[in-house]
Amino acid sequence: MTEERTVVPLLEPRDGIPPIVADAAAYARTVEAFASGSGPVAVDAERASGYRYGNRAYLVQLRREGAGTALIDPVSCPDLSALDEAVAGVEIVLHAASQDLPCLLELGFRPRYVFDTELAGRLLGYERVGLGTMVETVLGLRLEKGHSAADWSTRPLPEAWLRYAALDVEVLVELRDALHRELVEAGKLEWAREEFEAVLNTPPPAPRADPWRRTSGIHKVRNVRALAIVRELWTMRDRIARENDLAPGRVLPDAAIVTAALEGPRTKKALTEISAFTGRSARRHMNDWLGAVARARSLPDSQLPQPSTAGDGPPPANRWADRDPAAAKRLAAARAVVAALADEHHMPTENLLQPDAVRRLTWEPPEVISEESVTARLRKLGAREWQLTLTARPLAQALARLEPAREA
């Protein structure tokens, strides 16, 4: 692991803050510059989570040797496919790639090869893997903080934000190079390559059947008629948020939905007595909220939502001891194996083997426990080859020891 060193503040991009690329001519020059550059391309994207509907990018930052840094406004330049083609065979360096890839894909930027500096840090056993911490720990440089949660849909973007954005890719390739060396020294480079490939090949999540069930605090709602109010209010809020390009929580907080479901207000006065409905945005749509509550009240019993929906996986682990004691023992044994191996190889347990794979394996183990059957099951559950090499045999041995406890 890198030794402690004097930390130097990184206050300004070495080439200054570049002008924003916001028209066709500037974009064409950027494509040409990055096509003629050399080495990996550092990429980052800024979104407006918590402010706007969805997770689109509102600024894309890139840096490459020989090309310098570019700050692209994807509102003005929404198609980055030409840039994508210009660097098609080049390694793209991202920090927490799974967060940025979806919004980059929306713009037509589709990396073929990635190096994820956050994931590399996890595999190497760094306790804190945020970009600022990694840059400070590995390179001895301190990045400016404070604008990651800003509303990046703001126009024009303040100079301080642009400086912050440019600095996010300023030394990302240098961080990549240092971590690459550490991965080689630790014998983990091939593991990292498999993980990076998995990140690229992970399909987008399928739409949830009942997204309204994710409402924070819904566990307090135990009546199906009240659940119908949650559903109707959530659906109305989502429509308003989408139409106005606002984060749903800025239209109406989850707490308001849950409180309304529990209290069942019938009048505008009763609704305004719920404190969470007193916000300016919530007041603007008061008739919509009352209509949603009224619709829920008028639904026939046959159209009321069920208390919960059956998932496609095991139940929550805290229920296993009651529902299937033998499965609970298998899970405890498997978790102990994974924890010991993760400690041995200096990485978080969730990076050694996905927790969901461990749960599914132990909830419904193979009919015949063997290294081969456990390997096959874990591979089907998405485990990478390096993970199988480390975990399949010890997991099979641990489960086999519990085999007599299984029901015939």
Automatic annotation (TrEMBL):
It comes from the Bacteria. Residues 300-309 have a biased composition (Polar residues). Pfam families: DNA_pol_A_exo1, DNA_pol_A_exoN, HRDC. InterPro entries: 3'-5'_exonuclease_dom (IPR002562), Exo_C (IPR041605), HRDC-like_sf (IPR010997), HRDC_dom (IPR002121), HRDC_dom_sf (IPR044876), RNase_D-like (IPR051086), RNaseH-like_sf (IPR012337), RNaseH_sf (IPR036397). Gene3D superfamilies: HRDC domain, Ribonuclease H-like superfamily/Ribonuclease H. Residues 223-303 form the HRDC domain. SMART domains: 35EXOc, HRDC. Residues 300-322 are annotated as: Disordered. This is HRDC domain-containing protein. It comes from Nonomuraea corallina.
